[in-house]
Amino acid sequence: MAQEGSTELFIRRAHWRDFDAVASLVAQCGAGSLLPERRTLRRFRNIVHDLGNDLYLAFSRDVLVGLVHIVYVRELVAPRRAEISSIFVSPGVANVGVGEFLLSFARKRAQKRDCQVVVFRASESNRSVVPLLAAGGFRQAGQWYVADLLQEEHPQGLKEG
To answer: Are strands 81-89 and 117-121 parallel, antiparallel or unpaired?
Structure first.
């Protein structure tokens, strides 16, 4: 549980049963529609159960107010990285710190996964996130926004080595 401004937030990993709430949030944010079709439901279940990514939901008073989807990438020669695939905040709680909370949470999860960078790919459909990234210490590199984690402290309880 975290306190952000005047909004008390609870964050947890998504479950397959959260599809309707997630679909509603995505629609509220104007990011399209997730229809409860067999293929979409299967894709959602696969995302929720895939250990190569995290889908976390933020709640305020048992109402879904935000989500962050993080995909972890391991390549043969490149450093481990976390890509923020999606970050959505309900328009009803805009500007109260939910986005900052989700971004901070994503960075901590990436550190726990030994990622060296967190990246976000900006596009026309998600330009509203860019000011949040800039305020969160991300630097622009073309259409990507990048935060280096090497200089940051590891979360409490993790050992380096």
So the answer is: parallel
pLDDT tens digits along 65-79 = 999 999 998 888 877
Is residue 69 domain-resident? Answer: yes
Segments forming the whole domain that contains residue 51: 2-148
Residue with tokens 């609870």: 10
pLDDT tens readout for residues 31-82: 778 888 899 899 999 998 988 899 999 999 999 999 999 999 888 887 789 9
Instruction: State the CATH number of the domain containing residue 129.
Output: 3.40.630.30
Asked if residue 155 belongs to a domain, the reply is no
Q: Are 141 and 130 in contact (CB under 8 A)?
A: no
Q: Flag whether 153 is in a domain.
A: no
Dihedral in degrees, nearest 10, Cα atoms 49, 54, 58, 63: -20
- For the entire predicted model, the pTM comes to 0.83
Please tell me the total count of domains within the chain: 1
Contact 70, 110 (CB under 8 A): yes
- d(CA 98, CA 11) in angstroms, rounded, equals 11
